[in-house]
Amino acid sequence: MAQGNAAPANSAAPAATQIVKPTDSQLEQYARTYKKVAQTASEYQPRLDAAKSDAERQAIVQEADQRLVGVVTSNGMDLADYNGISLAIQQDPALRQRVEGMLK
After folding, report:
1. Taking a C-beta distance cutoff of 8 angstroms, is the pair 12, 67 a contact?
2. What kind and span of H or E run contains 36?
3. Are 10 and 80 in contact (CB under 8 A)?
4. Cα angle: 102, vertex 97, 17; to 5 degrees
5. pLDDT digits (tens, 9 = 90+) for 51-85
6. Are 36 and 71 in contact (CB under 8 A)?
């Protein structure tokens, strides 16, 4: 995927994220949401690069995580479902290819 396989909202996921077998409509919703998540995450990169201290970087990461969770939920997805699909995509090359096709 354009931003790599690790979705930015994963950092807000609980440790026990379940791998899911998503339906076609869930994959389509995931792809739409992923595009918005990736775009939002990229907006934070210049600020992270310019941060002068670990504390400043940490504050930016926390702000980004909160915003990314909001992006996921405002697109009608449950955070656990989004993270579960992200995990399934990382572990299933065929599923990853399907989603990559949707992202084009």
Report:
1. no
2. helix 24-50
3. no
4. 90
5. 999 999 999 999 999 999 999 999 999 999 999 99
6. yes
Structural contact between residues 66 and 73, judged by C-beta atoms closer than 8 angstroms:
no
Helix, strand, or coil here: 81? helix
Distance (Å, rounded) from C-alpha 72 to C-alpha 70?
Answer: 5
Q: What is the pLDDT of residues 3-59, one digit of tens each?
A: 333 344 444 444 456 666 899 999 999 999 999 999 999 999 999 999 999 999 999
Contacts of 48 (CB under 8 A, 6+ apart): 57, 60, 61
For the chain, first and last CA: distance in Å?
10
